Amino acid sequence: MGSFFRKLTRSQLAIPLFALLLLVVFNLFRDPEFFSVVIATNNDGNAVLSGNLISILNGASAIAILSIGMTLITSSCKGQDISVAAMAAIAGSVFVSVLRSNEITIPVILLAFLFGCVVSVLFSLFNGVLVAVFKIQPMIATLILFSAGRSIAYWINGGATPTVSSPLLVSIGGFIPGIPIPTPIIIMVVFLVLITLVLKLTNLGLYTQVVGINEGTAHLNGISPVLIKLIAFVISGICVATAGCITVCRIGLINHETLLLDAEMDVILAVAIGGNALSGGKFNIYGSIIGAYIIQALTVTLYAMKVPSAAVKAYKAIVIILIVVVSSPLVKEFVIKLNKKLFRKRAEKDVPVKAS
Amino acid sequence: MQNDIVLSMRNISKSFPGVRALQNVDFTLRKGEIHALMGENGAGKSTLIKVLTGVFPKDSGQVFLNMDGNLREINVKSPYEAQNLGISTVYQEITLCPNLTVAENMFIGRGNYRTVSWRQMKKRAADILEKLNIPARATQQLDTCSIAVQQMVAIARAVDMDCKVLILDEPTSSLDEQEVEKLFSLMRDLKARGVGIIFITHFLEQVYEICDRITVLRNGELVGEYEIKDLPRVQLISKMMGKDLEDVSALQKKKPTDEKPDEPPVYEAVGLSSIECTNAFDFRISRGEVNGFTGLLGSGRSESVRAIFAADRITGGKIRINGKDVKIKKPKDAMKHGIGYLPEDRKRDGIVEDLSVRENIILALQVMKGFFRPFSRTEAEEFADKYIKLLGIKTASMDTPIKSLSGGNQQKAILARWLLTNPQYLILDEPTRGIDVGTKVEIQKLVLKLAEEGMSITFISSEIEEMLRTCSRMIVMRDRKIVGELKGEEMTQDNIMHTIAGEAV
Question: Among A3, A18, B60, B319, which residue has the least CB neighbours within 10 Å?
Answer without folding.
Answer: A3
